[in-house]
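Section 3.1: Structural characterization of target chains.
Under the original work plan, the team committed to producing a structural model for every single-chain target entering the pipeline before any wet-lab resources were allocated. The record below documents one such target. The sequence was received from the expression subgroup and is listed exactly as submitted; it comprises 103 residues.
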Amino acid sequence: MARSVQKLKEESTPDTGRIEAALLELERARMQYSKRRDALAYSLLLPKREYAAHVKRIAQLLWELEGRRDGRADEHWFRAERIVQSSVLCEPGPCPAAGSQPA
């Protein structure tokens, strides 16, 4: 990506619109890389006890919201884990659903 910006810059008549579009794509890729790197670091550094307690609180909320029905503890736990893991990848503002793939 950086090479394409350099090539555009070296053209005899550089197209500033194309250069800006390439720079925007480069910046988006950099931000995506940073988000994923930070998410990985967060998941590796968060104490397991704190992580488990946080997931447990969310799983309990899911259980309560669904009428406290028995027999779905594993499902609530896995949904809570997806929510916690997805939240790490989100920037301020709208966040994709916990089951969807981040952009």
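Helices lie at 2-10, 16-45, 48-65, 73-89.
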